[in-house]
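Researcher: Can you fold this with adenosine monophosphate in place?
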Amino acid sequence: MSTFQPVRGMRDILAEDAQVLNYVIAKARETAGLYGFKEVITPVVEPFELLSLKSGDEIRQRMFIFDDLGGRKVSLRPEFTASIARLVTTALRNEPKPFRVFSVGSVYRYDEPQRGRYREFWQANFELMGSSNPEADAEIILLANSLLKTAGLEGYAIKLGHVGVLKGIMSQEGIDDKTQNAILQKMDKKEYEAALALVASEKCRNVIHGLIELNGTSPFDTVQKMQKQVQDYEKATASVENLAAILKLVVESECEIQAVDPAFARGLEYYTGMIFELYVPQLEIALGGGGRYDRLIEAFGGEPTPAVGMAAGLDRIALAMQVQEIQLKTPQQKRVAVISIKDEQKGEALKIAQMLRHSGIWVEFEVMGRKMTKALEDADKRRVHYAVIIGERELKESKVVVKDLAKRTQTQVEIARLAEKIKS
Ligand code: AMP
């Protein structure tokens, strides 16, 4: 019989990679705490209708959709924001604003698999709801910056933009929402010619083309030039001003913004304001992104609630850490193998293993019934730090033999002092 492989786009994440991913998850959780975000856990399976409400065609077409046995049309979540929006309009409805909500878990999209792009991947999601002030946008950008910093990544860049600029121009020109979204999606994929081809007015085409071509010497310079470029468009001008205010707050605090992209668009339809993405030089794909979406909660039947959020792609952050060869800053856990020389001492050996575990030492107990040399060879291969050997003679003196597998030395240690000795 042939063996089974994971479904295309799905992965088994083995020990070493799982350790890095879990490290990133821990960093995301830590960062959430530092910024006052409370964690919530929402279902992986959600009503299709909820998830498709504002996702946009891009994501809607890539959702895992099925009927459950009760005949409900459901989907695996492709992101967290819709679930959080549901919470805000129900269970969290009467909570004082602002809400700061954090979630972490796997999400599912039928993307074309490649390095850093999977059909099941992990996101950490942060939503700050209730404020339309630029300091809320700034907080989310600073949080994203903190996350990459605490993961130890080097040379990462934050790219900043504002969908209100393009949307403002297009609305004033009378372009309907559907066409606007189609244009933004093409811009997101950098298919600029195809995007411009959808714009009927020549003036509008020229202004958007000007934004695409616009090159500033610094983020502040770019924003100034954007201001000139859109001066005939009232809402677009207000959006550039908003972008300038956010940029100022972020840069004045501590965080460097590497680029403002005047023609920046993101795949999700629900963005209304500032948008950003995170990159490292070694990977072309974004490590995370987010932005402002002031009308989403209303679309879900809630009260008008301005909101800003971001999702970090944890697999990609883990990948970037591996590419940059970043050492995990976790305290080195002491690991030992406990082996009894003879069967008669197995009970004593287990008792000692339990005692060590109670003091926080990680123990791999010999369960294969192997002879001592084989068991030691195996312990060596597994890179445990010490082998604790339980023999009849030593037990009589309340002692065991401790073998340091790296140094290849061995000593007798009193059982009462064993845990303390291993830890030191
Ligand atoms: P989005 O929800 O589309 O804004 O995506 C947020 C982040 O999730 C992206 O910046 C990526 O880091 C990550 N991401 C999106 N799609 C995938 C995928 N197919 N595989 C791995 N990570 C992904």
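Model: Folded with adenosine monophosphate in place. The domain at 335-423 is CATH 3.40.50.800 (Rossmann fold).
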